[in-house]
Amino acid sequence: MEAPTQERTHAAVATTWTIDPVHSTVEFSVKHLKVATVRGRFSGFTGTIRFVSGRPALVEAVIDAASIDTGIQKRDNHLRSSDYLDVTTYPTIAFRGTSFRPVNANGRTGWIVQGALTIHGVTQPVELKVEQLGIQDPDTTDVLEFGATSRIKRSAFGMTFSLPIEGGGLVVADEITIALGIKAHRPT
Question: 113 and 100 in contact (C-beta within 8 Å)?
Answer without folding.
Answer: yes
